[in-house]
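## retry 2 of 3
previous attempt timed out at serialization; input unchanged, resubmitting
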Amino acid sequence: MNLYLQSILIFVSIISFLYIITSIRKSKVKLDYTFFWIGFSLILVLISVFPKIADFGAKLTGIS
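## retry succeeded, writing output
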């Protein structure tokens, strides 16, 4: 993955994380779904910062 694409992914994942946090603070999201969305956005940030995690997960599941 080239640096340009990785930087775009990092930017978009951080923006989505911040959007979810502000939606939770404004009570636009039900409390039941907050753990899922926070976890999902943190996984997006981790995968965008460390793209080898996605490669490892693909090898584990047999996806090429």
